[in-house]
């Protein structure tokens, strides 16, 4: 009897360990599809184009150093117009959906504020080739910034403002820390210190295995490397259910920027900050008054 009980317990324990190893193995191999859910909302299917919002655009395909093709929408204002603002907003997407889903936001920057807007699909998203990964998304950002700062006359001559929410904020921080001479300002919304520090908040049971989480997006170490001359606006939803709002506080504290502005939105969550009443006033005032040429 005793030995049967022992054998059962042993078997259960072994099964438990096996199930646990399997789960951890699954986590290890499939986490990229959890972290980069590019198929959500039909993200790999239909991708809306700016003409559907009456915006003139150019479809630009950029080839990365490792051969992936990135689909980009380039939307320029008339640089000969006397009121031309000479400012370009680069939209860095969150981790779900495709660039078509961001067009209502693009339309505000382009139609209402009259800024140039550039948006691209990360590899593995929308109509871009490849599969998403941290190394890959950084190569994509490198390629896009080369294009904007060195290959296109109008963008090159303008003040470039990075605008990134969530994962897009991590890409913005990477660019600002490694290619600061290409950019003039940065706007961050509900972004995180690192993926590893975010996972336990979303999946509490995984807090013991965060060592297995391989995408880092270690913004925490990059933030202090961003030069003081770059003004930064931080937009923080205080009820963010995905990224703990304290991550935004710590990013703010880590920034060396001579000008940094923190705006809190008390009653909102990870993805509805943009719908708050004063959101667009704050964004517009920051770009108008803190980015050269001031007042446009
Ligand atoms: C860009 O690539 C897409 C396919 O990914 C193709 O349909 C389109 O013609 C290309 N555009 C340009 C300007 O090369
Ligand atoms: C446009 O912005 C760039 C970058 O800030 C600046 O160097 C350039 O002088 C500006 N040009 C005009 C015409 O405002
Ligand atoms: C926010 O995300 C949830 C799912 O996480 C979705 O159901 C909801 O529609 C989203 N809201 C907005 C405003 O995008």
From TrEMBL:
Pfam families: Hydrolase_4
InterPro entries noted in UniProt: AB_hydrolase_fold, Hydrolase_4
Keyword Membrane: yes
Gene3D superfamilies per record: alpha/beta hydrolase (3.40.50.1820)
Domain Serine aminopeptidase S33 stretches: 112-219
Record keyword Transmembrane present: yes
Keywords: Membrane, Transmembrane, Transmembrane helix
Domain of life: Eukaryota
Spans through the membrane: 12-30
Full protein name: Serine aminopeptidase S33 domain-containing protein
The organism of origin for this protein: Lodderomyces beijingensis
């Amino acid at each position: 009897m005793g030995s049967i009980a022992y054998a059962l317990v042993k078997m259960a324990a072994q099964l438990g360990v096996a199930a646990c190893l399997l789960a951890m193995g699954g986590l290890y191999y499939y986490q990229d599809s959890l972290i980069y859910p590019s198929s959500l909302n039909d993200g790999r299917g239909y991708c809306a184009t700016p003409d559907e919002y009456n915006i003139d655009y150019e479809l630009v395909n950029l080839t990365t150093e490792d051969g992936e093709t990135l689909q980009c929408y380039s939307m320029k204002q008339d640089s000969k117009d006397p009121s031309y603002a000479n400012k370009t907003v680069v939209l860095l997407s969150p981790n779900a959906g495709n660039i078509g889903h961001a067009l209502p936001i693009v339309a505000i920057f382009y139609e209402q504020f009259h800024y140039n807007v550039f948006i691209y699909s990360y590899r593995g998203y929308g109509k871009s080739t490849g599969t998403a990964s941290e190394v890959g998304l950084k190569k994509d950002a490198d390629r896009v910034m080369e294009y904007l700062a060195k290959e296109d006359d109008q963008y090159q001559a303008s003040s470039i403002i990075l605008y990134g929410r969530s994962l897009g904020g991590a890409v913005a921080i990477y660019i600002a820390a490694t290619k600061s001479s290409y950019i003039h300002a940065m706007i961050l919304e509900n972004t995180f210190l690192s993926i590893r520090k975010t996972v336990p908040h979303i999946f509490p049971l995984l807090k013991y295995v965060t060592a297995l989480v391989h995408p880092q997006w270690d913004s925490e170490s990059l933030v202090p490397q961003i030069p003081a001359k770059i003004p930064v606006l931080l937009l923080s939803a205080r009820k963010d259910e995905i990224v703990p709002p304290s991550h935004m506080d710590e990013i703010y504290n880590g920034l060396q920027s001579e000008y940094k502005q923190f705006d809190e939105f008390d009653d909102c969550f990870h993805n509805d900050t943009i719908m708050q009443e004063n959101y667009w006033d704050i964004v517009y005032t920051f770009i108008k008054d803190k980015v050269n040429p001031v007042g446009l």
